[in-house]
Amino acid sequence: MPPRRRRPEECVMARFVVIGAGLGGMSAAYELRDVLGKSHEITLVGQGETFGFTPSNPWLAVGWRKRDDITVPVAQYVGKHDIRYFGDGAASIDAAANRVVTGGGETIDYDYLLICTGPKLAFEEVPGSGPEGGYTQSVCTTNHAQKAWEAYEEFLKNPGPIVVGAVQGASCFGPGYEFAMILDADLRRRKLRDRVQMHYVSSEPYIGHMGLGGVGDSKGLMESELRQRHIKWTVNAKVAEVRDGEMTVVEHDAEGKPLSERVLPFRFSMLLPAFKGVDAVAGVEGLCNPRGFVIIDKHQRSPKYPNIFAAGVCVAIPPVEVTPIPTGAPKTGFMIESMVTTIVRNIEAELAGKPAGFEATWNAVCLADMGDTGAAFVALPQIPPRNVTWTKIGKWVHLAKLAFEKYFLYKMRHGTSEPIYEKYVMKALGIERIKAGTGNDG
Question: For residue 11, what pLDDT is reported?
Answer without folding.
Answer: 45
